[in-house]
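Posting here for the record, re: NAP.
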Amino acid sequence: MRFLVSASCRAMSAAVQGRPRGLVYEKHGEPDRVVQLKDVSLPELGASGVHVRMLAAPINPSDINMIQGSYAVVPDFPAVGGNEGVGQVVQIGSNVTSLKPGDLVIPADAGLGTWRTEAVFEEEKLLKMPPDIPLLSAATLGVNPCTAFRMLSDFVTLKPGDAVIQNAANSGAGQAVIQIAAAKGIKTINVVRDRPNLQELVDRLKSLGADHVITEEALRKPETKDLLQKIPKPLLALDAVGGKSATEMLRHLQYKGTMVTYGGMSKQPVTIPMSALIFKDIRLRGFWMTQWKRDNAQNKEKLSGMIAELCTLIQKGQLTAPACHEVPLADYQLALKASMTPYVTAKQILRM
Ligand SMILES: NC(=O)c1ccc[n+]([C@@H]2O[C@H](COP(=O)([O-])OP(=O)(O)OC[C@H]3O[C@@H](n4cnc5c(N)ncnc54)[C@H](OP(=O)(O)O)[C@@H]3O)[C@@H](O)[C@H]2O)c1
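Prediction output follows.
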């Protein structure tokens, strides 16, 4: 048996071509200035190590903020960018029991540096994916769908027919919120920024299960209230933008509703009208997936249970990868630029 594993390891090692390379930065700054494609070293495998050939990894706003030095956690230098992605196991250390060569894996935690062709990770830092999960779904599962899942579960009790309002609804996180909510029978009001091809975007989000898609501008208009009367007032608002966008969503929340801020794409503070607090007793909360993982580090079943539930939704066709644009690793500069360009609505995925 040991011989068979070794033989398959050799076969897969042969499939890892060239020297290990990765997108490295040695100081904070704008990504196009500080990130470079370089050779990276591979540590010894070790007893609990897993040699992984990375296949695909997205560029998320938090990756960009980490490079800029404005994120809540910053890496030691030199650092390899990227916090999520999917890879295939090439070889395992002698004490590794949960993985074997050929398995598809995603990071169990942030900070592994996934923008690279291959790496050695500790077994406990990896989660095994069922083999039938599409590559792009696996590559984008660990951050946004998990965040959407937690925010829909952990703040208010939602039952079928209840409603949620969210901004940046076309983001990776927003698309996951729409689909997970639809699978649970929860209605969604989805706020996006206006753009020339708005109808195309509206159609796409509705095809994912969105009940209403409206622009930030329309949300401010009194007639929108009538439109939204067809579904119950939302109990939950999910805010990835801050600024005026968050304030507008508050106006549509139910009495004692909750707004969860999890991103700050506008870079503007959230301003709360006093009436929202006094007359509606609105509750304001925040969410950070990294903190949730830290808080639940002793309860690994909670993380693997959530991943299993999300994989079931994927297998049933109820949760698809966000709109993606795949870019070869060598063209990383184009991908970094596109990831920071407004109105793109496609997650940039680096293909290794
Ligand atoms: N707290 C957590 O644990 C957690 C987890 C996951 C994500 N997040 C945060 O959630 C947000 C979305 O992440 P993602 O990966 O889903 O993003 P994404 O797929 O890259 O999409 C970015 C979204 O932000 C919108 N946007 C950009 N600038 C904006 C502005 N000035 N005003 C309003 N909207 C703006 C974009 O809309 P346009 O199409 O109009 O440009 C798009 O909808 C980010 O802030 C991210 O850091 C937080």
